[in-house]
Design brief:
The structure is a homodimer of 388-residue chains. Chain A is 39% helix and 14% strand. Chain A has 14 helices and 15 strands. In chain A, helix 2 packs antiparallel against helix 9 and helix 3 runs parallel beside helix 9. Chain A is globular, with a radius of gyration of 22 Å. In chain A, 52% of the residues are buried.
Chain lengths: 388, 388
């Protein structure tokens, strides 16, 4: 900001009210109040209630998958997924460029995370770097479809098959994404979806596992309800992962508007892309062949040399303009004190991940965001470049 | 049922509609719909929202405690409590006469449960049997206030202090109970409360930890939100234990009626007690000095020799009469396949627990239960005795 008139800049661009990086897509209040009335009639608040059963069926249909298990949140879902596959010791290979929940569920299952560097184009696990991290203690690969961009699912499966490893996908961002005309969440052994308030599709808090068989679904249903297989039979150390009826009823209504939500986000994304495409030092994801995206996030990668300003400075200036962006994901999980001493956390072997984490910024994206606000954000980013 | 006319008996007693062992106390639908409207205005669904903050404060006031942390459910609360105290290895002494969640959270924290027998009067941990189970690997005692009846908190604390052990109470049943004019959940290092739909006070799913200091509350608040201490600082392997706004808003309204709920349950309990007190072979809890109870459950203990019928037979006959009771807690946790091979699970050292588990039955109790239904249930139990 040395070369521009800071005061004048803020006067031109500062919004009167803060714009957040995301905002939940709220269904019609009247419709939800009607659903609440039905919950009152049922007097059934949780434990596989009416709305829970209906939502499970509707999401399976929407995603074009056979078996899905709803959860109170995505973290507990992923926790149970690993336990269901009896992965509760040894090592699991995962990415450091993710939300803390990913490595944390490994901790809770007694597993040592092994961080693998990411690909500089997809920001996902670099399949070429996985194999050298496999040890006799490796049990599984836990890749993340970051921002909903598909991992290299074929190469990862090939590696897993060659070494006899499970693949569990953290598909928290990937609701509704299709790859090669198949639901992305059908790849691997199990995929976890998150329905947190900040997600494309939301139940307030919430999550799900997409599983491969009826037997696996039944086992996971037991495990998310304390392992209770019947009134007098407990099959193992389950946990409470149940989604309640308030969440499920909310989700059912949200699902009615999800296609509208996605197409509105697509339109906003296109504006971002058009307006920022010629800004030197700012890179946006390009459309990928075979991928039907969900427009969940709007990450930009800043090259401080070419753009003339660091990500952190841009973040601060946007904040001063009342535009709340997010350094998503920064810091890398491998730098948390609880993981920093792991051999795989050495920054040298995670150089791409460090570079991306230091230069990434997610811009506001949600359906009720005004097109004019997107244009304003783009103009700020362009203007800052020109002023340098 | 050999000596009575079964057909005639069912004709006399069978209810047209099933009566469940419990039913949630639903606040006014209109009031809740109004709260939902406020959530819509806030567009804030989780992560320490308006209703969350308000409920935390109101529950603390109601319970007469200083620090409370809300959770998505009681199991995740207990999981985090142990982690917060850094109990994640070795052994913890607990009771086998409890819900599966109690030992399961030990599993999830990497701890081996050591089951201790219970007292035949309180159904809680027998303090005289704890000390001989303490080994160099023991980290804590995890007693349960079963049915809301206080454990022998003084003796347990004495033992813990003598051996340098933590005491974490599973107070899932004990919402609002006072002992010696102090909140029961203030004893020990941390107490866990459950707000599941089947509990006296409910948020659909839900739970809380009552903690001792502001610092502990802050640490637990981090841990239930992935260990996120600030945007760029993760303090450890937390988890997602957050209560959402739908739950919190429900709880706030329930809290308004909790005293009415308790006094109605007290009245129903007194009828049960009066009508069943002279039935040989049926024992009900007697009122205890220094205890202000919460009337959460109505357990009866059946002496098959004196009563002339086993608990399992009584359960089946009541079921045929459309009265759903619950063998709560049967089977003992020490008999689950995942714990049965532990040295402490040997039935010989858990003889009281086995006897109670085989002969206990919880009868229907909730505020909307008709007094006539209670009388009918008591009459069935009396008649079955006379018919023998």
């Amino acid at each position: 900001m040395n070369h521009i008139d800071y005061h004048d800049f803020l006067k031109r661009y500062r919004l009167p009210e803060p714009v957040f990086v995301t905002q939940p897509n709220m269904p019609s209040l009247e419709d939800y109040q009607k659903s609440i009335g039905e919950i009152w009639e049922n007097k059934w608040l949780t434990n596989n209630g009416y709305f829970h059963r209906k939502l499970e069926q509707r999401i399976a249909e929407y995603l074009d998958v056979k078996h899905i298990c709803l959860f109170c949140n995505g973290t507990i879902a992923l926790l149970v997924a690993l336990h269901a596959l009896r992965i509760n010791s040894g090592e699991v290979i995962t990415t450091p460029f993710t939300f803390p929940a990913t490595p944390h569920v490994l901790y809770w299952n007694g597993i040592r995370p092994v961080f693998c560097d990411i690909d500089k184009n997809t920001f996902n696990l670099d399949p070429n770097k996985i194999e050298k991290l496999i040890s006799p203690d490796t049990k599984a690969i836990l890749p993340v479809h970051v921002y909903g961009n598909p991992c290299d699912v074929e190469k990862i499966q090939e590696i897993a098959d060659r070494h006899g490893l499970h693949v569990i996908y953290d598909a928290a961002h990937a609701f509704g994404v299709r790859y090669k005309n198949r639901p992305l969440c059908q790849y691997g052994d199990i995929s976890m979806l998150s329905f947190h308030a900040t997600k494309l599709f939301s139940t307030g808090e919430g999550g799900a596992l997409v599983v491969k068989s009826k037997a696996q679904k039944e086992r996971i249903n037991f495990l998310k309800n304390f392992g209770i297989a019947s009134q007098e039979m407990i099959i193992g150390p389950g946990i409470n992962g149940k989604m309640n009826e308030f969440q499920a009823a909310f989700g059912l209504l949200q699902l009615d508007t999800i296609d509208k939500e996605i197409s509105r986000r697509a339109a906003l994304t296109h504006t971002y892309k058009n307006m920022l495409s010629d800004v030197k030092g700012i890179t946006l994801f390009s459309d990928k062949p075979d991928v039907q995206p969900n427009y969940a996030y709007l990450p930009i990668l800043i090259d401080p040399k070419l753009y003339g300003m660091t990500r952190d400075d841009l973040y601060l200036i946007l904040e001063k303009c009342n535009i709340m962006t997010r350094k998503y994901f920064y810091p890398l999980c491998s730098t948390y004190s609880c993981y920093a001493s792991l051999p795989s956390s050495h920054p040298e072997s995670l150089s791409v991940a460090h570079e991306i984490a230091n230069n990434i910024l997610c811009l506001p994206l949600y359906s009720s965001l005004e097109m004019e606000t997107v244009q304003l954000i783009c103009n700020i980013i362009k203007d800052l470049k020109i002023s340098k």
